[in-house]
Structures are given as structure tokens and as C-alpha cells.
Amino acid sequence: MTDTDPENDGQAQAGEPFVVIKGLWLVEFHELHESLPPGAIRKQSRAADDGRTYGDLGTIVAVLTLTSAALQTFTAWLQARQAKHLGRTEPQPEPSGQGYTLELRSDGTVVITLPPLGGTDGERSGDPALSIQELRVQLERLLGP
Questions:
Q1: Secondary structure of residue 89 in the 3-state scheme
Q2: Alpha helices in the chain (DSSP H)
Q3: Cα–Cα distance between 37 and 47 in angstroms, integer?
Q4: 18 pairs with which residues across the strands?
Q5: Which of 3, 35, 76, 125 lies 20 to 30 Å from 66 when distance is taken between CA atoms?
Q6: Helix crossing, 68-86 with 26-35: angle to 10°?
Q7: Closest Cα partner for 20 from 103, 111, 127, 107?
Q8: pLDDT for the residue numbered 116
Q9: Residue 133 to residues 2, 5, 34, 44, 46, Cα–Cα distance (Å)
Q10: pLDDT-based confidence at 20, cuts 50/70/90?
Q11: 106 by DSSP, 3-state: which?
């Protein structure tokens, strides 16, 4: 498989920062794959899961190589996802209790959990919910100067 194949399992290129995105539906993964630079996002195989990442069986886990361009595209996609779900043309603040979580695991892995669609509570990690803007600021810190 090529690097641009959305079915390609794996991690980011060595030395590049990456984040694990939890809670994506397959159609959302393909939307993101089409929007991002080639090779910026991959599906993580269930075999690579440590038992803590997969929650809802209907969702997948993706690995996003974190670059400035990928971060900009990802946060724009999050805003569009939120607006589409809420039936609005303009991005709006997240409903109360419906934020994004960012977990930094002891092994250095950064995991983003997307809020569930459809008004369900979904699985929450216990980490504080962040707005899209707060999430972007945290991810920019990972990129460094």
C-alpha cells in the first residue's frame, strides 16, 4: 500500500510529532484523509491497540502526523463537523459538556477524544473538555516553535 492509502495502518514518520484521534467514524476518516496532505493520517489497526484506545465499536482510531498544515486543516474540519452536526452554517461554541479531551499518556502518546455525535454521552476519559480553540492551542504547543 502507498503512503496515501487511507487503509494504511501505522504510525507517523519517525521523529515527527503525532496524535491519536479517537472517536472517528469511517466516513469522517475518509473526509479528513481527502482534506489533509498525502500521508498525514492513517488508521491505527486494532492489533496496535493497547486496550484503552478503542471505545465505541462503530468508530475507528486514526494517527495524525502533526504539522502546521495538518493542524490547520484538522481544526477547520472539527469546526465544520460541529456546525454540520448542529445544523448551523457558522461554527458555534460546543454545547455544555460536549468538548474535546486531550490525554497525554505516560509513554508520551497524545490522544484526542472527539465528542460523540447524536447527543449520546459516549465514553469520556475524565480529562477536562476543551473547545476547538483550546485544543488547537494545546496541539500547537506540541509542535513547538
A1: coil
A2: 26-35, 68-86, 132-143
A3: 26
A4: 65
A5: 125
A6: 130
A7: 111
A8: 77
A9: 33, 30, 23, 26, 30
A10: very high
A11: coil
Apex CA 129: angle with CA 125 and CA 133, to 5°? Answer: 135
- Residue from 66, 61, 43 nearest 113 by CA: 61
Residue 138 three-state SS: helix
* The predicted structure's pLDDT at residue 67: 92
Residues 6+ apart with CB under 8 A from 141: none
pTM: 0.72
DSSP 129: P
Using pLDDT thresholds of 50, 70 and 90, give the confidence band for residue 121. Answer: very low
